[in-house]
Amino acid sequence: MTAALAVQGLSGGYRSLAVFREASFAVEPGQTLGILGPNGAGKSTLLKTIAGLLPTQAGSVLHDGVAMGGARAHRRARTGLVLVPEGRQILAELTVQENLDLGRAAGRLGKPEFAARSAEVLAIFPRLAERRRQKGGALSGGEQQMLAIARALLLDPTLLMLDEPTQGLAPIMIRQVLVALQALKGRFAMVVVEQNRAFLDTLADVTLTMRNGRLAPDEKGTNQ
Ligand SMILES: Nc1ncnc2c1ncn2[C@@H]1O[C@H](COP(=O)(O)OP(=O)(O)OP(=O)(O)O)[C@@H](O)[C@H]1O
Ligand SMILES: [Mg+2]
Question: What is the pTM of this model?
Answer without folding.
Answer: 0.95
